[in-house]
Structures are given as C-alpha cells and as structure tokens.
Amino acid sequence: MSSPILTVDISQWRRGGDAAEALCRAVDESLQTAGFLLVTGHGIDPALPADLRAAARRFFALPAHVKSRYAVAVGGRGWIGPGMEANGSADGSETPPDLKETYNCGAQTPTGDPVVDAAWFPPNVWPAEVPELDELFTEYCRQMKLLSDDLLALMSAALGLDSGHDFLGRAERATWTSNINHYPALTEVGRPEEGQFRIGAHTDFGTVTVLDREPGSGGLQVYTEEGGWADAPYDPEALTINIGDLLEYWTGGRWPAGRHRVLPPQADAPDEDLMSLIFFYELDHDAVVTPLGPPVGAANGQPPVVAGEFIMERLEAITVTAS
C-alpha cells in the first residue's frame, strides 16, 4: 500500500532548477497530508549515527545507579530515566509513562541573561564512563543543525516565502534539543500497561524534527486523517522529517504537525531493542511568530506567539509528576 509520506532528495533542491521546483511541490503535498517527509541526499555519513548508537548503547547498558549520576528532569541535559515522560499526556489526557529512557543534549549559545540561559542553554553533561559520547553527539548535532537550517529554507521555498518572511530568519540563535531514545525489549520492561507505548501519541513542539530510526515491529506509526494509524515508511538511506506545533501554527494550519507514536514492545519480538536519534529544532527563544494568512495559510486572524513560551507550555504538559 502506498504511503502519503513522500520521499524527496534534498540535493536536488540544493542544485536548483526545474527539479528543485518539482521537489518543492512534493514537500508541500506531503506536509499538507501527513506532516512528514522522508529526505534522502542529506549528505550525513552513515558511520556517524552508527558510532553514536554504539556509544549510547554502552551508556544505557550501565547500571541504573551509575546512570543516575547524570539524571535530569525533562528539559534538562543528561539522562532522563524510565517513567519520567508521558508524551500522550500532551493533549491533557492522562496516560501511562513512556517505555523508554533518554540521553540528551542541547544548544550551547547562551545569551548572557541567566534566566534565559538556565531555561534554554544549560550546559551539557557527559558521562565519564563513555567519554566518546561527547565528541560523537556534539558532531552529530552540528550536522543536524545545518540540515535543519536547510530544511527550513526548503520549506520556505515550498511556500514561496520571500527573505523577509521566511522561516530561517527567526532561527539565528535557535534553541534545540537532541535525544537518544532507547526503547528496551519486552524481556526487560515486562508487559505494557493498557494504553502504554514506547512513546504515546503526540505531536512535536517546534519547527522541524529530524529522526534517524531503526525499524521494528514496535516502531514508529504516523496518523493521517485519511488512513488513520499506519506504520511509517522506512528507507535506510533516508532521514524521517516531521514538523511540529510551532510550524503548524506559523503556516496557519496549512501543514498539520505530524501526529505519531512508537508502539510498545511486541510479544512476537520480545528481544527487540531499538534506538532512535532525534533532533528537535525550534527558533530563537524570543522569536515572535505571526501565522501566515490566506492564500498561504489556512486560517486568518490568529494572534502572534513567542516561540519559547509556546514550547515551554508543551514541555510541562508531558512531564510526569510524582503523586
């Protein structure tokens, strides 16, 4: 069965010409339908994510009391242990915690304002037990940021936006977070609770998300109005791209944020252990976003929002609080 999620070769857009125009039309079509794209031609050396995964597996294999030295709350930099997040709660409903653990890092471009920097640019924390994680993760994020800038420029071109109104113009000091998500096997976590997922159904919060994922029976699913929930298409040469709530708002609803979930570990694959590398891109923390009106945007008259405030509200919604 064909998927509404299209595959585009970003190198064609970088070269320009007729192929670039056709690619822009495909981007607009896929994002209107599903909020997702597969992107090839990105130029990321596959050895880098492979090496990063290997280092991350060495960290996640450490005893919990060792990993806890690097434990942080949701939104922090370091290890976010099991039971800390419930992404399905973002819409206000109560859901069981996600069946995952995470190691993350984030943007290191402080402003000099201690309040702003504590919220958006806290220092990264690196485990002494796996020293290579620092260099590998830092380089991976550097390349993901460059790609994310290209994606914002491509998406602006897909809508015919000029330089005064393009998406990239408000990402000069963009905030971002990158997660290494570990989804342990069924044999480790046990039978899921009713309604429990590796990641519950949600949309991301920012502009673009770049996902390097491993396929599996307990893997990524995407929701569309026409097809409901379906397994996301997978291409080992491609990165999976989706847009978040902030870009949906900016486009006046033309591009819905890609709703997705990661299935729980499956009984027919009890030893399946997956790892995803995820780069969440945003904008400058103080960027003011005014939704595009018709004919580009699908809605009119929506008020402007401040990017950082918009995202922080959503982060708070998915944080599991002790009862």
From TrEMBL:
GO MF term list: dioxygenase activity; metal ion binding
Iron keyword on record: yes
Residues covered by the Fe2OG dioxygenase domain: 173-283
The keyword Acetylation appears for this protein: no
InterPro entries, sorted: DIOX_N, IPNS-like_FE2OG_OXY, IPNS-like_sf, Iron_ascorbate_oxido_reductase, Oxoglu/Fe-dep_dioxygenase_dom
Keywords: Antibiotic biosynthesis, Dioxygenase, Iron, Metal-binding, Oxidoreductase
Transmembrane region(s): none
Recorded metabolic or biological pathway in which this protein acts: Antibiotic biosynthesis
GO biological process terms held by the UniProt record: antibiotic biosynthetic process
Protein family according to the UniProt entry: Belongs to the iron/ascorbate-dependent oxidoreductase family.
Name assigned to this protein: 2-oxoglutarate and iron-dependent oxygenase domain-containing protein
